[in-house]
Structure formats: structure tokens, C-alpha cells
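=== RUN LOG ===
request id: a7f3
mode: sequence -> structure
chains: 1
length: 364
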Amino acid sequence: MHRIKVNLGPRSYDIVIGRDILNRLGQELLKLKAGTDAYIITNAWLKNKYGAKLTRALAGCGFNPHFKIVPDSEKSKSLEAAGLVIKDLAKWDKSRKVFIIAFGGGVVGDLAGFVASLYKRGVGYVQVPTTLLAQVDSSIGGKTAVDLDMGKNLVGAFYQPRLVFSEIDLLKSLDKKQLASGMAEVIKYAVIKDPGLFAFLENKYKDVLNKKPAALEKIVVSCSTIKAGIVSRDEKEAAGLRTLLNFGHTIGHAIEAAGEYKAYNHGQAVGLGMIAASDLSRRLGLTGPETVLRISDLVKSYGLPVKLKGVSLEKIVKAHYRDKKFIGKENKLVLIRGLGQTRILRNVPLNLIKKSIQDITLPL
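=== RESULT ===
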């Protein structure tokens, strides 16, 4: 079992990673002294498959578990959904010893963290991520948010979990699309921080796609270590270091929004966003075409699209101006000089951004 520390003073917490460790969750929670009543936010499929095992792990250590089922879709990341969960939580919470467990992927994690940050001005919560994307990225760092019609993650807060508990065996149930979506974030970490991980992903892609536990464990440990280090040094992006985690996301989020969150899921959009961002880096003379090709080939090898179709360039450009990190019309993009070498640029010429998006776009 691996234990990685997110060092944030009084808000510090551990990321625990291992195989066949779900039965040890209760023991980890006892150390936190967060409460006795576990309000578990999850979806119906996970409840049916793992609910009994999770209940045994918690009840065996004296916890009182209660499951709240939410739809397994982006619709659960809304103010309306959060309001319904908070009302249900208030009805159930009688002992004032409640804490929240997010048992699910990124949507459940974001919703649970958002609810935890608001209820009673903040209660403790624990992330038990069940998807690759959540284990390597969204469960770590305390970003909680819900969406508005105008864009993703526009209402939220930095609110750190008390623990992130990543059970590798939960990833066995992922389908190809879910696995590929998580791999987009893994590739992001490799590009911005770890050329060695990038080479591993190139050489061991069959092991990863076949969900070999050792390969998945290496990926989760590597990415969690990188993110823990970044968050520990720049919790709220005040120093600019955490901004590096947005590589591929500015254009990726715009693709998601332009496609009305139906044409492409998050991982697919980020994969396309990384290809566009690396091509934009080439156009600006920061990196060579060979780096762009390696990134594109790696994205493709994990079953992610490398060409965009069905979404107009005009909608993508319009959506990209809604990025929270822009100041007015002044854009801000994470670009690369090579693997493991990043650069943040402002006021990137719009015509170059359009050309890079056009390069990955098939005719409508």
C-alpha cells in the first residue's frame, strides 16, 4: 500500500493507494476522527456492485453508513442537484457527527466536495474515487464545483478532503471508454512533468488497456505523486504552478461546451485539446513536430480521438473565452517546449489558436 502526503499545514491529508484495500477503509477513517455517520454519495450501479462490501468495511469499524444515490451523469453537477442532496443530508443528519464519502468518479467527487463545503459551513469529506480519471486527478487537490448552463465548474470552492483512498481493483470494472477518458489525464501528467512516465505509456499501452493491476498501480501512484507535489506548493493557483495542470484543458473544455457535453466526454475533449495545444506550441516555435506527433500517437493508442468532428470551430472559439483563468479577452494557455517542459503564455494570437483547432477538425 502506498501513502502519499498532500502537505497543506492543518489541511494536510494522505492519498492511500493499493490493491484489495477497500476492506481497510474503516481503519483509515478511524484515524481521522471525522465523525461516526458516513453519508455516502454514489450512483446506483456502484451501490449495487460494491455497496455491501463498503457497508461491511465501515460498520465493522463502528460507522453508521447511509447511501445517497445520484444520477451518473454531468447533470448531477448542478445547483439543483446539490440542493436536493443537501436537503436529504439535513433530514438524515441527527447526531451532528456526520461526514461525507464520495464513492464514484469525477462527477460524484465534485458534487460531494461541493456539498461538504456548504453544509453547516463545512463538514469533513473523504474521496474514494472509482474511475481512473478520478484517482489520478479530480479527487486530489480540493477543487469542488458544479456547472452552470454558461460553462463547467463556474460555482465552487477550494475545499480539501480529509483523505483520498484509491482502490486499484475498482478500476477492473471500467469499460474502454471510461479507461480512455482517464488516460487523457494520465498523458497530461506525463507531458507536463514526467518524460519517463510518457515512455512507460508508450511501451506498456497493452498492459494498461488490458487493465493489468501493476500497470494501473504505477500510473495512479505516479500521477498522484505529481499532483500532490503541485497542490502542496500551490493550493489555489496563486503561484501559477497549479496552472500547469490545465494543459489541454482550455481548448478541451471549449470542445466539451461547444458539443453541449454530448459530442465528447471530458477525456476525449482533453485529448484533442492536448493535440491542439502541442500544435500551437509548434506554431509558436516552442517545440518541434516530433513532439507533437508523439503526443498525438500516444493519445490515439489509448483509444482517444485525434480528429474533431461534429462541432463547429466558431462555437469552440466562443466557448474558449469562458475559461475562468482569462482576464477579459486576454487568454492564458499552458504550452510546451518539450516533454516535461512547460510554458504559460498570455495573449496567444487568436488566428494561431484557430489554425491549431482547424488542423484537428474534420469537415462538417
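=== NOTES ===
The chain has a mean pLDDT of 94.
The first strand starts at residue 2 and ends at 6.
=== END ===
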